[in-house]
Structures are given as structure tokens and as C-alpha cells.
Automatic annotation (TrEMBL):
Its main location: secreted. Keywords: Secreted, Signal. GO terms for cellular component: extracellular region. InterPro entries: Expan_Lol_pI, Expansin/allergen_DPBB_dom, Expansin_CBD, Expansin_CBD_sf, LolPI, RlpA-like_DPBB, RlpA-like_sf. Residues 177-261 form the Expansin-like CBD domain. Residues 1-22 form the signal peptide. It is found in: Secreted. Pfam families: DPBB_1, Expansin_C. Residues 58-164 form the Expansin-like EG45 domain. It comes from Arachis duranensis. The keyword Secreted applies. This is Expansin-B2.
Length: 265
């Protein structure tokens, strides 16, 4: 990953279903959740990728090109290790704004963690080019891009992607004995999500990294359909909501396929 700064540069998330439970871009509106009382923290922000891009095409959270489309629409961030938290921070939503430069709009913009910035400090935000442009005044995006780095105010907010969670089958899967799946578009502000598979006691489920999980049945064929149980967890030890995604992974599951639930947190 390349961090753009003044010395380095000169000019420097999905198909919609027709069903009623599809992911709708208008639902990505964290302002619906009361965040006004949450304090702002201070950090530094740079940007990477192209000036109008979504950052990395294959970020550490394994979201791939879905971040380019609604509801995320390229508003992503690669973050330092204190926020990335070895992948547990993937999918978290943050409001960010800059206020100490004339090109800054001072208006908050919501970004989604989709990547890690290993060379960044712990609370650093390396924004996508599009996200960095979004914190600038209209017509002054190039000024901010040329600057390369700004002081940033940020705070964690609750994600509101809509009423559907997406389960995407990864390319490292090996049907019919091994599967990797990414859990995407999860609402709420949980520190991380626990995942279990209902009624398959001999199935081994483990987190591969980021938002991706592996499913392995001792070398035997997997036994879909699978009902996934997701539980919200918080850093203070409390447990949030638990929901089930009934038969979300079908019998005829395939690499690259996207399966949508009818519920979300």
C-alpha cells in the first residue's frame, strides 16, 4: 500500500436485488443513529490509490471490488493497527472530518474500514482517494490531494447498511470440502462478530482474517445448506444481539457467489 504525502506526489461494500430484502444504497446513513453525543478523537489522515478511487483493489478485509459500488461507494479507509485490530475492525464505520485547513469542508463523512495500513501509526487513517476528496470543500479536492496529509477528527458510529447481510464465497474455497466466506454489510457498532454454524457439530469454523471465515469438515464434504448464527461482541465483555441467517449458504454453493440474508442487526 502506498501512502501519498507531499513529498511523494505531485497530484495526488454490490449488485442490487429486486427482492424486498436487498441492500439499498440509501440505507447507508449512519446519521439515522444518534451519534451527536459521541466525542471526537484526533488523528492524522493521508490517502492512497487514485484520486477518485476506492483505495486498494484487494484490501486486507477481502471485500474486493464491492467497495466501489453502493452502499459504500469508494468511501473506505485503510487504518493503523489500533483500529484494524488484526482484522476485527473490518467493516466498522467512522465519521471523519478535517477542520484546520481552508480546503476542508468541516463536514463529517462516513467511511468504512476495508484495509490495513501496516506502515501507519496506530490510529492513522489512510483514506481512499475518493474519501479524502469527500472531506474537502467542493472544487478544492485537488488542493487537499496535493497537501497529502491533514489533521483528522474521527469517531466510531453505528453502520446502517440496510436489512440484508451479504455472505460472499471466496476464491480460496475448494468445493466440496473447504469453503471461505466473507460476512459483509453488518449493521451496528459491535467491536467484532462471532460466527457459529447451526446443527453441524463436527464442522470446524475459524476466522481466516478480516471479515473472512473458513469452513472445514475434517476432510469430508461440507453439508449445506448452512444456517449461520452471528453474535455482536463488545470490548468491555458485553454481548449484543444474536441473529440467524437461515440456510444462507445453499446446497449448490459456488465460488464467487453472493448470498443475501433477509435480516440484519
Amino acid at each position: 500500500m502506498k501512502v501519498h504525502t507531499f513529498t511523494l506526489v505531485v497530484l495526488c461494500s454490490m449488485l442490487l436485488s429486486t427482492t424486498c430484502y436487498c441492500i439499498n444504497p440509501k440505507f447507508f446513513n449512519p446519521s439515522k443513529v444518534p451519534n451527536d453525543e459521541k466525542p471526537w478523537d484526533q488523528a492524522q489522515a493521508t490517502w492512497y490509490g487514485t484520486p477518485d478511487g476506492a483505495g486498494s483493489e484487494s484490501g486486507a478485509c477481502s471485500y474486493g471490488k464491492t467497495v466501489e459500488s453502493p452502499p459504500i461507494s469508494k468511501l473506505t479507509a485503510a487504518v493503523g493497527h489500533y483500529i484494524f485490530r488484526q482484522g476485527y475492525g473490518c467493516g466498522a464505520c467512522y465519521e471523519v472530518k478535517c477542520t484546520d485547513n481552508a480546503a476542508c469542508s468541516e463536514k463529517p463523512v462516513t467511511v468504512v474500514v476495508s484495509d490495513e495500513c501496516p506502515s501507519c501509526s496506530g490510529y492513522h487513517f489512510n483514506l481512499s482517494g475518493a474519501a479524502f476528496a469527500s472531506i474537502a470543500n467542493p472544487g478544492q479536492q485537488d488542493i487537499l490531494h496535493k497537501l497529502g496529509q491533514v489533521n483528522l477528527q474521527y469517531r466510531r458510529v453505528s453502520c446502517s447498511f440496510g436489512n440484508s447481510i451479504a455472505v460472499r464465497i471466496g476464491e480460496n474455497s475448494r468445493p466440496p470440502t473447504y469453503m471461505e466466506a466473507s460476512i459483509e454489510y453488518v449493521n451496528g457498532d459491535a467491536e467484532y462478530i462471532d460466527l457459529e454454524v447451526r446443527d453441524q457439530s463436527f464442522l470446524t469454523v475459524s476466522r481466516v482474517g478480516g471479515a473472512t471465515w473458513s469452513f472445514f469438515f475434517a476432510g469430508y464434504n461440507l453439508q449445506p445448506p448452512m444456517t449461520l448464527t452471528l453474535t455482536q461482541r463488545y470490548s468491555n465483555g458485553t454481548k449484543g444481539k444474536t441473529i440467524q441467517l437461515p440456510n444462507i449458504i445453499p446446497v449448490d454453493w459456488k465460488i464467487g457467489q453472493l448470498y443475501q440474508s433477509k435480516t440484519n442487526f
